[in-house]
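Troubleshooting log. The previous structure file for this entry was overwritten by mistake, so regenerating from the original sequence record. Sequence copied from the archived sheet and checked twice against the printout by T.R.
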Amino acid sequence: MTTAVITAGATFTGAVLLGLLLGIWLGNRSGQPLWVLIGIFSGMAVGGYGAIRLLLRETGSLKG
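Regenerated output below.
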């Protein structure tokens, strides 16, 4: 179970960082700093979904 928690945290962190970097890149290209916030929140949504799915699968609450 400890490995699953570490993996879920890494999944969440990686998604947020990827969203942040993509948002910074898009913000610099377009001149709109709002892309940074969009990237962060998108990364949080994707990372949270992935982490929760991983933890539910590990605990047996999610089949498949």
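The longest helix spans residues 2-30. Archived copy saved in two places this time.
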